[in-house]
Amino acid sequence: MVNENNIFKNQSPWGSNPGSGNDRGNGNNGSGTGREPPNIDDVIKNFQKLINKFLPGGKSGGGKPIILGLLIISLVWVFSGLYRVLPDEQGIVLRFGKYVKTTQPGLNYHIPFPIERVLTPKVTKVNRIDVGFRGTSDSGRSSGVGEVPEESLMLTGDENIVDINYSVFWVIKDAKKFLFNIQSPIETIKAASETAMREVIAKSRIQSILTEGRSKIEVEVQEITQQILDEYGSGIQITQVQTQKADPPSQVIDAFRDVQAARADRERAKNEAEAYANDVIPRARGDAEKILQEAEAYKKQVVAAAEGEASRFLAIYNEYKLAKQVTQERMYLETMEKVLADIDKVIIDKNSGQGVVPYLPLPELKKPKAGS
User: Fold this and answer.
1) CA-to-CA distance for 303 and 95, rounded, in angstroms?
2) Smaller CB count within 10 Å for the chain: N or C?
3) Chain mean pLDDT for the chain
C-alpha cells in the first residue's frame, strides 16, 4: 500500500499529510507538519556557552561577546537556507505558505525559516492503491485478505454481478498541482478509479470480463481515471491499472462454474462437429467431383469410339462401292479370322482332289506340356 510519509517526508502545505484525517481504507495516516524550524533560544544558549569558553573566567563581559554571538547566530540562520533535493524529488519553495518556485535535484538555497520553507515530494516513485481488497503478498498479487465488497461488487451490462479487485499505480507528474490542488490524493485517486471501473463494467458483458476482455477494461479504466484527475488538476499520472481478480460473487460462484463447464462442453462438442464436417464434406465433394470426371471421361471415350466406328464403316462402305466382290471377300476373311482365332480347327479344301489337307498344329506347339 502507499505510504505517504515516503512521498512527502512528513511535509504538506495543508499542515498534515494528504489523505490523513478522514481518509479511509488504506491506512495511510500521518502527521506531517513541514520541516521543523530551529529553536532560536536553544541556539542562543549553545552559542553563549561556546563563547563563555573563550572568555576569562568563563563569563561574557561587555558588549563584544554579545555582538559576536549574534553574528554567529545570523550566519547559522543564513546557512540554514541550504537544502538538498534528491534525484527522485522536486523542491517546492513556499514563501509564507505561498508557492514561489520549483527546484530540481541538487543543492539549492532558499530564504531561511520562517520566511520560506521547502517541500520535497518524491516524483519518480510508483505508488499503489488497492481497490476492493486490502493487503498484498510479496509477489504483488492479491493475498485474499481484507476483501471490501462495497468496492468490489459491480453490476455488468448484462445485469450480472461481478466481484472485481484491482490495483492502481501512479506517480506525481506535477508536484505543484499535486500539493496545492488536492488535499486527499489517495481518496481522490480511489474515487476516480472506482467511478471509471463501474462505468466500464456497466458497459461490458460478464463473459468478456471474466475471460479475454480484462486487458481492454484495464486500458479504458486507466484512460477515464486519468481524464478525471486531469480535470481536477491533480498533477497525478496513472501508469497502470492491474486487475487482480474478477469472479462472480462467492454466493453463486459454484453454480456459475457449472454453467461455465457446460458452456465449455458445448463449445467442445461444437468444435468436434465442425471438425468432422470439415473432414467429411470436402471428402464427399472430392468423391462427387471424381465421379463427374469419370463420367465425363467415359462419355468422351464412348463418343470417340462411336465416331471411330462410324468413320471406319464409312471408309469400308466407300471401298465397297468401288469393289464389291473384293470388299466382301476381305470382310469375310477378317471376320473368320476373328471367329476362328482361338479354336482348334481342320481346314478342308473342297477343290483339291485329295479332300483333306494335312494340318500342322502350330498352335498346339505353343501350349505348355502337361506336368512341365
Assistant:
1) 111
2) C
3) 77
Q: Is the pTM of this model over 0.85?
A: no
Range list of H helices, 55-112: 64-79
My answer on whether 110 and 48 are in the same domain is yes
Within this chain, do residues 114 and 139 fall inside the same structural domain, yes or no? no
Q: How far apart are CA 60 and CA 69, in angstroms?
A: 10
* DSSP state at residue 18: T
Amino acid (1-letter code) at residue 141: R
Cis peptide before 56 (omega within 30 of 0): no
Task: State the cell numbers at 329.
Answer: 471377300
Cα–Cα distance for residue pair 90/273, rounded to 1 Å: 64
**Which stretches of the chain score pLDDT less than 70?**
1-41, 43-44, 47-65, 135-145, 344-372
Sign of torsion over alpha carbons 248, 253, 258, 264? positive
Question: Which residues make Cβ contacts (< 8 Å) with residue 245, sequence separation at least 6?
Answer: 132, 133, 142, 163, 164, 165
pLDDT at 179: 85
Residues 43 and 139 in one domain: no
9 neighbors 83 (Cβ within 8 angstroms): no
